[in-house]
Amino acid sequence: MKLIFVHGHTQLDCDALELKKKWTDALKTGLSRSGLSMPISKNDIELPYFGALLQGLATSANWALEQTVKQANISHHEETRLIHDFLLEVAKNTGINIQQMAIDLAIPDQKRSPLNWAWVTAILESLDKQMNWGELSIRRFIYELFCYLTDPVLRVRLNDIVKNQIDEEPCVVVGHGMGSIIAYNVMMENPHLQVSRLITLGNPMGLQSISAYLNPISIPKSLRGDWYNVQDDLDPFAQRSITITSSAATYDIHHHGGLRSRTKNHHDMEGYLNDQTVGRQVYDALAAEPKKSSNGILQYLKTSAILGPYLAAACEFELFGCLLSYY
Which InterPro entries match (predicted)? Predict the structure, then answer.
């Protein structure tokens, strides 16, 4: 059984190997809190790395956000509305009173528009103060997510990086933040994959502004087991549970709320993987016997149908030979 980590927004301070070690060490901490150890070797752990591809977006995020809003027009501003609505949802989740903020800044109703950069900036600055992520982190997060959802070329490139490190053998997939969305999309587009369990951490798919780009959200056919969605109640990106609007699958999403991160940033990957409940979910999935997929069963039946007559004939021939020898 393989373990696939799918990271989220740009990790500017880590290369691929460093980031894989960071994730693995965090999970080992979560496992140790349940008295467990890693049930697979490090060679069975993969972390598809796309940080280099996003680095250009990250370094220009503040300027790019401003240009995106300012260059939008009245008739074509759906993408700008994504930024605006996402910010409003996150602000509400962090406890910011948008109405009071607008009054304090003397911004009238007609100016509270996705096309008004001054209004968008006011929300961003309030989030900066409330979340204490640093001046550009929230902007990087939003802009990278915005580009992934609205740019089909970038989306294909990121999805391919992840898909190319997942073969058809059973695996457990753990996604964090934007990585949860990427993992979901890859699984939806590749029903032949054998994902025994999907674990999403700090997953923003419950936000209405994000789910609008993914509707209808359903259980991927490549998922052979359960989907565990883990939420820190203080993570502003993951406070809303995911709603399945269309699914014919046997499995459903198990929402695990109430997690309390030990890190200052409640969206931080380490805070999630350090948790003993998350460690247990990963361990149980890795240690379990993989479920046979419908594709595997179908292949077995096809093989039986093809070889069955020959095997039967061989048995009859062997029996006939035994009878001749006897007489």
Answer: AB_hydrolase_fold
